[in-house]
Amino acid sequence: MKKTLFAIGIIAIFGLGIYAILNIAPKSKINSEKLTVVTTIFPLYDFAKNIGQDKVEVSLLLPYGVKTHSFEPKPSDIVKINESDLFVYTGKFMEPWAEDIIKGVTNKNVAFVDSSFGIEMMNEAEEAHEVENEGEQEEHGHEHDGVDPHIWLDFKNNKIMVDSLTKAFAEKDPANADFYQKNAEDYKNKLAHLDDKYKSALINCKSPEIVYGGHYAFGYLANRYN
User: Fold this and answer.
1) Is the separation of the CB atoms in 127 and 219 below 8 Å?
2) Which domain holds residue 87?
3) Strands 86-89 and 111-114, how do they pair?
4) Cα angle value 139/67/210 (rounded, 5°)
5) What is the mean pLDDT of each run of 10 residues along the chain (226 residues)?
6) Residue 190: which CATH number?
7) Sign of CA dihedral 81, 84, 89, 93
8) Is 188 among the domain residues?
9) Sheet hosting strand 35-39, strand order edge to edge
10) Rounded to whole angstroms, how far apart are CA atoms 89 and 113?
11) Nearest by Cα to 218 from 150, 157, 155
12) Per the confidence metrics, is the pTM higher than 0.85?
């Protein structure tokens, strides 16, 4: 009886080992083949998801509703970035804390993507005369060092940002470079279609005024369709 139980135990252990090899190991390998991408805000998350699709694992760093400019990363956030392949942020004016994180990352294999690279930034002082609540605009300007960081609200800028991400993906994963490029072109075509819809809708707008709540963040949008 004891020999029988011992034999059953050995078979069970052996079976569990085979199960682990067949089920756990391959999954880990598959996951490790995907690029891991950490993005700060949702527009960047959406760009990365559309470009990378099933070849990437994309996570959103900031919880919904959190103020981007004054966000304070937790130790777990820093660990997540340190273990990723790419960290994508809007730029130093939108996420002033990002540069400190980058300096502290010890993993030399992490690539950092400043998606504002190549984009002509608007000056908030130039927008202030168009905003009725100038006191609020001045206070907000100090927060961004006088630069409007809401660059994704212009479809022209979005295309530049998508190209920056696509280049970074291709450099990290050359084997899938064509895949990323095709997805990026498809996505930019969708952005162009949305841009056309904005133009056709706003051309018949009787009032050029924007009614907003909170701080003014629509300078790029207003400038594009002015």
Assistant:
1) yes
2) 34-224
3) parallel
4) 60
5) 40 38 37 87 98 98 90 95 98 95 95 97 68 50 73 97 98 98 98 95 81 80 89
6) 3.40.50.1980
7) positive
8) yes
9) 56-60, 35-39, 86-89, 111-114
10) 6
11) 150
12) no
